[in-house]
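re: ur question from yesterday

yeah so i grabbed the chain u mentioned. its 537 aa long if i counted rite. heres the sequnce exactly as i have it in my notes:
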Amino acid sequence: MRLQSKLILVICSLLALVTVSLGGIFYYLMSSALEEQIGTRALKVAETVAAVPDIRKAFTLPEPSTVLQPIAESIRLKTGAEYIVIGSRAGIRYSHPLPERIGKEMVGGDNGPVLEGRSIVSKAVGSLGPSLRGKTPIFSDSGEVIGIVSVGFLTEDISHITESYRHRIVWLTLGVLVVGAVGAVLIARSVRSSIHGLEPREIGSLYTEKQAILESIREGILAVNRQGVVTLANPYALRLLGLPEHTDIRGRPLQELLPNTRLTEVISSGQAEFDQEMLIGSHEVIVNRVPITGWNGGIEGAVSSFRSKSELYRLAEELSQVKRFADALRAQTHEYSNKLYLISGLIQLEAYQEAVDLISRESDVHQNLVAFLMREIPDPMIGGLLIGKYNRSQELKVTFEIDRESSFRDLPPGMDRHLLVTIIGNLADNAMEAVLACGDPSGRGVKLFLTDLGEDLIIECEDTGIGIPEETGSSVFAKGFSTKEGADRGIGLSLVQHAVQMLGGYITYQPHPAGGTVFTVALPKHAHEQKGVPSNE
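ran it thru and got these structure tokens back, copy pasting raw so excuse formatting
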């Protein structure tokens, strides 16, 4: 551990020395380049001013400053120079940013080379302070030097610019030092850091835990390498692939097990795919595919997680059932509260006979319905659902009638009752909503007919509501499609169609003669035994 600390200290010291040196060199080079650039800029402006014909002509006038001062100031404001001074061969100013200094001698002592006909860049202290200036001669038509143009930028302004860059370089240097220190620590940890500081026993324990986690996840997990060879598969994935639970498929090409896989495309593109639908054998699944990125940034493989679509639908339906049960209890409570208030009022008015008649009538209706359901529809889940829908219709003031010719006694024991509840419950809910959408539900209602005669179970739900437009067609079963306004719609009939398909049946609809719609569902009694509906265990 001491050696590791010393190694970290040595690496950090060398890194600090190199980083600070490079930072200083970079700052020097940047400052020099900035001064050179500004000096070149000042000289180019001076040469441009000296080449203006009007400036040369102005030297022949009695008062050259009257022409030269406006021109020089206009150019200075456009170029951003601190000053543009035009002077005579004797060094007398004809222009200056401060007009009161016109007519006085130019200062700085660097006019000698310019009077010899050369352009220079120099540093000098002028009347405005230390500056970096570009100077060039003004030639007459005969080629003689008749004047001087001096364009300057104050060194104070240049220092402000380099100061801002210096702060950035300091922060950049500190950042490099921090990153380098972290890198030095990571390098110094050597082999121990590559295994996260774990002992072999701890690594074995983590592997065991990973296996336990994969076995407990209620989703299929498949991983492949760059060549598309399986490197990992949990028991749930094996079950959906139709393989025994303890089959070892590692080392086998995934294309042989799952010909329609897209994991190879994910490896090629490096783009993750989420919530995609796919068919594995006879199972519809929702699948996520994510590329595996290696330590060097390359794609090392891909991992896929998937879950049976039927189980997702089952979870959604269970949530819907809870909501329906809550609505049924609320409706029943509300309805019976109203009846109790009515009975209480009749008793207070001493209308005892009317109270007795009301109690008898309500009791007879409820008892007759319960007796009918117990006799003809003995399944408790379906019977309870129908009682809940009846109570809900009473609260909504919608007529809900169960055809007295209905019979649902011959239900196959292996048929999934949850799917039947999904079909009947959603059809009844949609029908009541269609009636309520008419605005005035009086004279309108919902009628449900169930029969188990023959080889099929028949469910027929008719309403006299708003109906479905003819152009809608089969899109009425599409998820998210609805003929009614509002959010969170277009789910019920999609769930119904999925449940019907899971039971091997079919669903149709047609207009009701009195307005509205008639939905008919036919479910083969023994289709589930042949189709092999996925187990929920």
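noticed a couple things. The first helix runs from residue 2 to 50. also The two ends are 53 Å apart (CA to CA).
anyway ttyl
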